[in-house]
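Anyone else keep sequences and structure tokens together like this?

Example one:
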Amino acid sequence: MIAYIKGKLTTIKDNAVIVDVHGIGYELICPNPYVFEPEMNQQVQIHTHHHVREDAQILFGFRNTDEKYLFTKLISVSGIGPKGALAILAGVNIQGFIAAVENEDEKFLTTFPGVGKKTARQIILDLKGKLVHDFAIENTEEQTSGEAAGTSGREIVSEALDALKSLGFTTSELKKITPQLKSDKTLTNTDEVIRKAFSLLAK
């Protein structure tokens, strides 16, 4: 199995990045490829999960081993494939997700594309109690955002829009709702912005 790819980041697409390793370009499907923008044309090390199917071999890329580990746990849940796992990782930080699982917050889990009540319940049944020790979550009573203290509203909205692009929403769709997201002062982290965006896009 391929544990990570180390090379020059040459391309960022809506759902993937391409890393050049000694003249060979490796395409890595990522939850949110735009998080790698600051490292464009630089040397990067991206953790990978090598997914093998009968008809294809796919490399998924992650910022760190925690994100990769959660991906492997998600695809072990009945009803969640790689695409669904990527959608979850693109829309939430690890601590916020684990807090939702531990608190059995089905409403929060169903905000992700493709996750209905049945799948949300399955996530809780399969993963509750199995993640808190691995990720050393100190407080699961609140869904922590993981955003750095002092992050501006503009930065939070920008990060949320990047995540939504990676989920397949078009620039024109996002432009229509951006003013409403920026003007809503009650949104304090990326997770909240993404949930608000989902509700606006569904109208």
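And example two:
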Amino acid sequence: MTVIGKLYGPLNNFRVQKIKLVAEITDLKLEYTPEFELFKTNQNEEFLIKFPLGKSPAFETPEGLKLTESTAISHYIASLSPSTNLLLPESPLNASKILQFILFSETSLITPAMNQVLRKYSYIPENPSADEIDHKTLVKSLAYLNEELNGKQYLVGDRLTLADIAVFADLIYPFKYLIDSEARKNYPNVINYFEHLFKLEAFTKVFEKLEYLD
């Protein structure tokens, strides 16, 4: 199988795993960088010549296309799928809904969650007032997602799309580090959705296991 491009980033990073999952589902082959060290590899001269912002994940094709941002890379890979419309929208309406959920996930799930995790483990200074705002945003977003998933297996239509992959990946940190077993009882539809996706073969292969805060 021909390699379609090289993905730069640590293999245990959830954004790298998101892209790896898209490649797995679409049956496309990527070259990975298991030696990649965040904050080191992405700051060396060779990397910065290719990707001046020093962002990871980053992606490069044999033809010279260079991309950053995991959503953009995921979309590009999905667009190369031999199966028509696999993971991509079937209509303009669904395209808008998929984009809506991806942006919601980036701004209202992983951003407030990541802010709290970074403070919790002292990667950035403590800030109780900011923590309170981020916590409220995350709780409100999970409640919204729980309502959206009522009676549904997938976010848009009746099949897996890039929206599901984005939201699944962005739920990993909240459930692993922030939302304990008691709090998770408030989001039964989200938990059912999260675990349903994980049971799909490609998800299990890439993510291996789910981890929850006690």
